[in-house]
Amino acid sequence: MNSWIDADLVLITLTSLVLLGASRLGTTIRMVALQGVLLSPLPLLLAGDAGITLRAAGLAVATVLIKGIGFPWLMDRAVRGGSLRRELDPRLGYNASLLAGVLLLAVAFLLSSRLPLPPGEGTPLVLPAALFNILAGMFVIASRRQAITQVLGYLVLENGIYVFGVGIASHQPLLVELGILLDVFAAVFVMGIVIFHMGRELDHIDTGRMTLLNDWEKE
Amino acid sequence: MIGALIIVPALAGALCFGLRNNRARRALLVAAAAAHAALAAAAWRGSPAPTLYDWLALDDLGRLFLGITSLLFLVAAVYAVGYLAREKGRAAGDRGEDFLFRNIPEAVFTGCLLLFLSAMTLVITSRHLGLLWAGVEATTLASAPLIHFHRHRRSLEATWKYLVLCSLGIAVALLGSFFLSVALRETSSSSSLVLDDLLRRAPAADVPWLRAAFICLLVGYGTKMGLAPLHSWLPDAHSEAPSVVSALLSGALLNCAFLAILRVLQVCLAAGQGEFARDLLLGFGLFSMATAAVFLVRQPDFKRLLAYSSVEHMGLLAVGVGLGGLGNYGALLHAVSHSLTKGMLFLVAGNILAAYQTKAAGGVRGLLRGLPASGILWTAGLFAIAGSPPFGTFLSEFTLVRAALEQGRPVVAGAMLLLLAVIFAGMSRTMLAMSHGEAATKHPAESFLAVAPPAVLAALALLLGLFIPPPLETTLRLAARALGVPL
Amino acid sequence: MSGYAGLLAALVLAPLLPGVINRTKSFFAGRRGPPLLQPYFDLAKLLRKGAVYSTTTTWLFRAGPVVGLAAMLVAAALAPFGGVSAPLAFAGDFLFFAGLLGVARFATMLAALDTGSSFEGMGASREAQFAALAEPAFLLGLTAVAWKTGGLSLSGMLGTTSFATWSGAAAPLALVCVSLLVVFLAENARIPVDDPNTHLELTMIHEVMVLDHGGPDLALIQYAAALKLWVLGSLVVGIALPVRSLAHGWAFAASVAGMLALCVVVGVVESCLARLRLTRVPQLLLGAGVLSLLALFIGLK
After folding, report:
1. pLDDT, tens digit, for every residue of C113-137?
2. A49: contact with B, CB 8 A cutoff
3. Are B338 and B315 in contact (CB under 8 A)?
4. Contacts of C290 in chain A (CB under 8 A)
5. How many other CB atoms are there within 10 angstroms of residue B466's CB atom?
């Protein structure tokens, strides 16, 4: 059982790494979708000896539907419908992003070695995988210009928190479900993008162009 | 009763979406605000029973912040009536940019305003850290449409930044909540995140996890509170939102985020990690003040000026709690006086903006002559926000400096005084230039609804400097005690 | 004793591998393709021919193929095969192994630069760039395996993978396998990185460096290339196959079968993929390095 969890976590980590190095919007969206699908068996796998409960099954199904299918589909629609640039234009090059990913990976492992897991909770890989996804998501948000890529970064970040919640804090009855509330934000973002990309006044939200409100250039 | 505090504004907000009549909606807004204030006042007198499995309760800290929020909201609601009437008549457009925009429907605005109040009340009264987290998320969602009131490019940009940064903060805070539940796990299967349980279990906390949890929660809720370097949404949102919303953001929302941090601080104190937590707060606080000082000097936009001033004051709050002891009391008193003063200033800024149609400080001259009422309030507000006697902020800032000196931390006290002096100089330069000089055009006399609300707040801020009412004093002392024994 | 059997197998069977790859590609292209033993025939033919040397070249040009082959021969003696130790094994020899690959590359590049041709110089520069990225991936991957298996020599690491090792550390070993496969393809100038069959000098990397070599020199180079394919392939197969769990004879047979299977995989990869744009190659190699590093982190955990 354990090795399946580890394999799943490694695959999730790999999708984030690919996402960091990806140069096309389509690849990025597909990676996020794949990650959502890979996340879904986690509650079932981690249920382990206790047997699969209705709650775990529900979480798994909800994960696939929301993270694996729902968001990526909406994003894909936004990309197809709007006049988005398919090629990404990061502030940092792809190779540099990948190297930064390595650095984040090291940080995640380092941090997780400082936080000893309570005995009997999760597997040793849960914490580093969760932390890495969180850090990678933040990195994507910080280093990409387009609003839609930032949203993708947010989804990755959220997935990291989900891994942690399911893997370690699952004894806490309410919290994991609260994590799903984070999806509300993601939904707001995605809807915002769908609306504004397809809609009127903004052909695309490029946060690199969001320089109207700035303190540095006014003087 | 606590349930009613949350449900009344929520229901009224939902009703607002359905009402078609503008007048009825505005009346409902004020009525709901008044009902909330009445309930809050009743909650001050008696101690309401906890509800919802003890997840909702009102302690001394909560009572203090509930009072501020409710009062400020009532004043803002009255102001909003005048504001909405004015916005309705105004030709939509942006001077100088030839860019037409339509405001979001008034129903959405009023509804979101009330939902915002409901969410803030949830944050204040919640004893369950998960519920508290959900409340903070709800405040973000409810306030985003408010910031996007003028459907303008700039307000869209501000809203987007606000959503991205705050949701990032919220996500980190959720992670922190997870960490906290790991740090304070119980051997038995069910462990709750209710504050009282947490405080009980705190002495046996897993220290590395608890520290990680505190850092995450401080960063997460600190984003919402506007602590530098996580503050960058704050000036944009405050300057682009309608002034009445800015007043609520600054005076009420930031306090709610501060309260969320205080809850976590309580757990850290109970776990014996007070020093670690306080040092972090102190560092963040001083850094926020320094950042604000840098951007305040020569700030050309007067609403951004006020926004950066909020960053500064949030820094002061963090410094006060970081000092502990007398600092706790000072910080809580300062939270009250800052809310009153900043609320007043933003409302006045709204009047100025309406009259001059510009946010550039350079475009506003001769306030005292052109808009006498607002001009006087604006000048008084400058002295109030900068902490001069006889205003309440003087008392609280003085207490904070005294706390630093009494604890033998002259460097902290010196840094605070230096930064306060720089900020005072920077703000007065801009704001006094706006007040004085010849008025270019003659403006019509301001309406009662535009002037009375900020005047009330100004009077309260002044009162606080002269005399602290005994019930408030008692609550402040009790609340400060919840944050550690006074020195 | 059987360590020498592995070495012997390497020396004898190495030229078979390019033959297998070519046959696989032919099969996918719908051709019959050259006979499996074609590389042997080529070598025999080349050895019978004379060499032509340009007047601008110096001894460096002649030394290149010899040094390259010598390095490969020593490397072959280091690589374990069939679950038993190599004839040459000492703690930390995987660093020496990487060094030998470097020496061979250095000799080839010097020989290429010695011709004074701009094409060959360009090839040498690309080779240097990609090798610099492939080497960290290779070393990190082997470090991860060393950590998991506890061995500090190639023989110690690769000879000891068994079913138990795999079931205990499937994730890191799989990652290292993928990473080493990429390194294997890059080092041997196979398709996603370099196209051995290209006819345009501009797009070549490895082949362009040996354009000026002929006769016995070219034979040495081709034999060394085949050996390199075998040696690096045996590392991948050594990790992937839990040969320790098998009896000696079976382990040997399984390893040979594994090598042939690897060549089929390479053939399939070459048939399905196009060569990457040159600017994307570093990313591929970097990705391999990241995989190795991830494996190392997981191993350390």
Report:
1. 999 888 888 989 999 999 999 999 9
2. no
3. no
4. 17, 98, 101-102, 105
5. 11
